[in-house]
Write a structure and sequence with these properties.
alpha/beta, 5 helices
Length: 184
């Protein structure tokens, strides 16, 4: 699953002014759950596409993604879609641990591992999962190596809120996409 591109976090990106990271809820916390064909999710995907393309037009050429289920997966797929048009952009996976997908179902693992193969680089925080702390450290790594964040946030407490608060403290430009609650 991992190849020569994989390394453990050992350095910051030298030019984080051109790096954008993502944070957002996992599928279970989204109003559409795992149904990405729900009209609310499709509407969010269009908004995300436009925000990422706007970032590219602002000069952002590197995107850091935590590669979790839900919003992260959608972000990674959207960047890869835009990479067909903007060949120079890079997608970096920032993983909390090598076995992030150990409790996921077969379909989720297949989708995840297919995405890993398409990344330009992979950064791992830990060898093995060691509790929620490694997720927090992964999120902080992404913030510390970025100047912009695109977030899908419903306003509720949790990891996404903590990551956005940390990004504010670090002075990142933050774009928040709100999940659509009402069905269209």
């Amino acid at each position: 699953m991992f190849n020569h591109k994989t390394s453990f976090v050992d350095r910051k990106y030298s030019n984080n002014n051109k790096v954008c990271c993502f944070t957002g809820h996992r599928s279970q916390k989204l109003p559409w759950g795992f149904n990405e064909q729900d009209e609310r999710c499709l509407k969010m995907k269009k908004e995300l596409y436009l925000e990422i393309e706007k970032s590219i037009n602002e000069g952002y050429d590197t995107f850091l993604c935590g590669m979790a289920l839900g919003f992260d997966t959608i972000c990674a797929e959207t960047v890869l879609q835009l990479k067909e048009k903007y060949k120079f952009i890079k997608l970096i996976g920032a993983l909390p641990c090598k076995n992030q997908d150990c409790k996921w179902n077969t379909e989720q693992k297949k989708r995840y591992r297919n995405l890993l193969k398409q990344l330009d680089d992979i950064r791992c925080i830990y060898e093995e999962y060691n509790g929620a702390e490694c997720m927090l450290e992964r999120n902080n790594y992404m913030v510390n190596n970025s100047s912009k964040m695109i977030a899908l946030f419903n306003g509720l407490p949790g990891g996404t809120k903590k990551t956005i608060e940390y990004a504010k403290q670090q002075g990142l430009k933050i774009v928040i996409i709100e999940p659509y609650i009402e069905s269209i």
